[in-house]
Amino acid sequence: MKYYYLCFFLFLISCNDARVFENQIDLGGYWTLSDSKTFEFDVKDSTKSYDITGSVRNQNKYIYYNLYIKYELYRGDSLLMADLAEVILFEPKTGKPLGRGLGDTFNHEFEIMKDYVFAAPDTYQMKLSQFMRLDTLQYLDRIGLRVSQTTPDVIL
Questions:
Q1: I need a surface site. Which of 15, 62, 87, 141 has the fewest CB within 10 A?
Q2: Phi–psi pair at 42, nearest 5 degrees
Q3: Is 37 inside any structural domain?
Q4: 46 is in which domain, residue-wise?
């Protein structure tokens, strides 16, 4: 009987979707240095904290084991924050693909900001750019962004 209540509790938690925004942009197999991807989203409650997560889909033929992504958060024309995230796509020593996927395509999620509190309810933009040494990176299919309210950790 305890098992039934635990399953029901986990089901209720999973139904609580704290997602505020989620979108994916198709890259068409390549991403140039000058091609920033901008995601625009609305924050309605500035009293809560938010987690901002990026995602990338790559093919096995991608030549590096990692991907550096520069991110910039804007409110209107004002830059609020800028930093760099590293996404590890392959095991550095063995070359084994990491992430979730089938065949030769894999999806990866990476943390951009955790527990971020927006200054005010407004429309914000997150700009993502590849920040590698090559001008054009091939075998990158998609870049995405998800903004969700931070949920408290559940201790069972």
A1: 15
A2: -105, 135
A3: yes
A4: 19-149
